[in-house]
Write a structure and sequence with these properties.
The chain is of the alpha+beta class. It has four domains: about 80 residues, 2-Layer Sandwich (Uridine Diphospho-n-acetylenolpyruvylglucosamine Reductase, domain 2); about 120 residues, Uridine Diphospho-n-acetylenolpyruvylglucosamine Reductase, domain 3 (2-Layer Sandwich); about 120 residues, Alpha-Beta Plaits; about 100 residues, Alpha-Beta Plaits, CATH 3.30.70.2740. β8 and β9 form a beta hairpin. The structure holds flavin-adenine dinucleotide. Flavin-adenine dinucleotide binds next to β3, α5 and β10.
């Protein structure tokens, strides 16, 4: 092993069964790739412990030998947080048990390597809902969701992953196990230490178990796609729906015409639900835990008024489960469709909801002046003020020549975001990809506090080093 200290592998093999240690090149390959193909891990050992105790032993050995550890969940992260440069990758894939479902307490206790879709299914089987939902749910793991404080399509109603968890168990960088695995809705006993691990992208420890909040399962729902003549109208429609439907509004997504066209061009099964072309669309979902709630009647009234007021020009209400899937497919496949169109430069930003349209308009004007012909595909969780402000290359431009503008376009877009008191990373995290941007925009106090916390918990800097910020 080139970069590993002598005796490290011997110590590791004393603590872990052989089945938990991968070193053959062909076994390592799937762990070294990265979702967007922008980076690749350079690492010769992957550890796959079967439980938190073995995981803790492995981390203690790494700490003793000063070997860095990169925790890896479903490997769907979009900012390179799971990229290793030397050291070991520690996969959570074998910690995949659903430990308990308590329907009276409305909680589920799980191991961190459980795939999100399996957790959703277990909640459904128990007559409940675990509301975290995102395009990668068939592969991402709850540990990764917690480590990145993932958002997704239901944040509007249920909040980010941080709001969906009551307790956490985590292995600290020195191999001790932090036991914060309680299922309490009230616990004011000093610092809420579990919060440190949520959104820390594996830099402070490895989450091994979690107690998740469950909600009553939806028993009525309606899904609508509305067509809008002007971007400005999106927020008027959002305001009307929210005022009328309250917290029955669970999702409100923006899709531009370009997004739909890219889907039609590149993703089989994506079709235009309308006869006419429209410049903007909103995908809206209402749900209620009450059987027979007339959500359809409710949304129809809002849509009729919106048509009269010329806020919308048309709307489609899904008539079947299949049509619900078809409408959501347009939204969920949009990032993949965009990637197939050539070079794309993506920004996952948030601004106050009231500034979302102004942000899109100002940023679009500026990027179009910088690169004539650039195609703006601004879509996503507009009801949370979270916009995936993605830029697609002009059709006749060389892909690499377009991608060479990455830093310049980042600066243009992020300057507007920061001017509007927004965030340069709404839900994907910082990892490696946005580290420079965080360094550019974060206050020195903010970075200093983060570094102090890192030094206190991980004095040997072994836990996912060089992610989010350089420790200095
Ligand atoms: C098609 C698609 C759609 C997506 N949609 C959304 C979306 O709507 N909203 C959103 O927020 N994100 C979205 N993402 C991004 C990604 O799916 C989420 O960030 C997800 O939460 C990552 O989970 P994972 O298990 O794949 O983590 P990984 O990619 O394996 O890891 C992500 C980070 O978490 C750390 N980590 C992983 N597991 C642990 C653990 N147990 N303990 C400590 N650290 C750990 C890793 O070191 C890394 O830094 C999407 C991704 C794709 C590919």
């Amino acid at each position: 092993m080139i970069d590993l200290p002598e005796n490290f592998m011997v110590s590791l093999r004393e603590q872990l069964p052989e089945s938990a240690i991968l070193t053959r090149l062909e076994d390592l390959a799937p762990y070294l790739r990265e979702e967007r193909g922008l980076m690749k891990s350079d690492c010769e050992v992957v550890l796959r412990p079967a439980d938190a105790e073995d995981l803790a032993k492995a981390v203690a050995v790494c700490d003793l030998h000063g070997v860095s550890v990169v925790p890896l969940g479903g490997n769907t992260g979009l900012v390179g947080g799971g990229i290793a440069s030397g050291g070991v990758i520690l996969s959570l894939e074998r910690l995949n048990k659903i430990i308990a479902v308590d329907t009276l307490n409305h909680t589920m206790t799980v191991e961190a390597g459980c795939v999100l879709a399996n957790i959703q299914k277990a909640a459904q089987d128990a007559g409940c809902l675990f509301p975290l939902s995102l395009g990668a749910e068939g592969s991402c793991q709850i540990g990764g969701n917690l480590a990145t404080n993932a958002g997704g399509v239901n944040v509007l109603r249920y909040g980010n992953t941080r709001e969906l968890v009551l307790g956490i168990e985590a292995v600290l960088p020195d191999g001790r196990i932090f036991d914060g695995l309680n299922a309490l809705r009230k616990d004011n006993t000093g610092y809420d230490i579990k919060q440190l691990f949520i959104g820390a992208e594996g830099t402070l420890g490895i989450i091994t178990k979690a107690v998740l909040k469950l909600y009553p399962a939806p028993r009525s729902s309606v899904t609508v796609m509305a067509a809008l003549p002007r971007l400005n109208n999106v927020m008027r429609l959002f305001d009307n729906v929210r005022a009328t439907c309250g917290d029955r509004l669970t999702a409100f997504e923006l899709i531009p015409r370009l997004g739909l066209e890219l889907g039609i061009a590149h993703v089989p099964g994506v079709d235009d639900p309308f006869v006419d072309r429209h410049p903007h669309y909103s995908l809206i979902e209402l749900t209620s835990p009450r059987e027979g709630d007339d959500l359809r009647g409710e949304i129809e009234k809002v849509l009729e008024r919106a048509l009269e007021d010329e806020v919308i020009t048309d709307a489609v209400i899904a008539e079947s489960e299949a049509q619900v899937h078809q409408l959501w497919k347009i939204r969920e496949e949009l990032p993949a469709a965009q990637s197939r169109e050539g070079g794309s430069i993506k920004h996952d930003v948030s601004v106050p909801v009231s500034a979302a349209i102004e942000f899109i308009e100002k940023a679009s004007h500026a990027v179009k002046s910088e690169i004539p012909g650039i195609r703006v595909c601004a879509f996503g969780h507009i009801g949370d003020g979270n916009i995936h402000y993605n830029l697609t290359q002009p059709p006749d431009m060389d892909k690499q020549a377009f991608l060479d503008n990455w830093e310049c376009l980042n600066r243009i877009v992020h300057d507007f975001v920061v001017d509007m008191n927004g965030s340069i990373s709404a839900e994907h995290g910082i990892g490696l990809l946005k580290k420079m941007e965080l360094g550019h925009y974060a206050s020195s106090v903010n970075l200093d506090v983060m570094r102090q916390i890192k030094r206190a918990i991980d004095p040997n800097n072994i836990m996912n080093p060089r992610k989010i910020f350089d420790r200095g």
